[in-house]
Write a structure and sequence with these properties.
- This protein is mainly alpha-helical.
- The chain has one domain.
- The protein has four helices and two strands; from the N terminus they run ααααββ.
- β1 and β2 form a beta hairpin.
């Protein structure tokens, strides 16, 4: 949890997103109590942190990071579940659906076009026995 919190790449779970919101508001409140002038200086890293975490949560939902500027979309990101399996932004942070699983009829699920490529950021996703 909280690996590369200022990066806009990857996916995060609802828990990390919720903790990010709490950290953002707690830090902003404490800094504003200590020194309002310091708050002006630290606004940029605080907002960068929240935008990066919001973008990663959007990625977990299978959307572009720009979706977070839609009014009330942050509530949807907080309560909605993530996309199952690997999407174009990376593997599921919960680990659910990241591997091809057999369906009820014994056949393997059809991999997505992204999974057919077999490589995500230099990591080979194909099983080799």
């Amino acid at each position: 949890m909280f690996t590369n919190p200022f990066s806009f790449e990857g996916r995060i779970r609802r828990t990390e997103y919720g903790l990010s919101i709490i950290i953002f508001y707690a830090a902003a409140f404490i800094i504003s109590l200590i020194s309002p002038e310091l708050m002006l200086v630290l606004q940029i890293p605080l907002y960068w942190f929240m935008l990066a975490q919001g973008a990663k949560r959007c990625h977990d939902r299978g959307n572009s990071g720009w979706f977070q500027i839609i009014p009330f979309y942050s509530l949807w990101m907080f309560f909605a579940d993530s996309d199952n399996g690997i999407n174009e932004y990376g593997p599921n942070p919960k680990g659910l659906g990241n591997q091809e699983e057999p369906s009820m009829d014994g056949q393997h699920q059809k991999p997505s076009s992204f999974q057919k490529q077999g490589v995500y950021k230099g990591i080979n996703l194909n099983k080799s026995d």
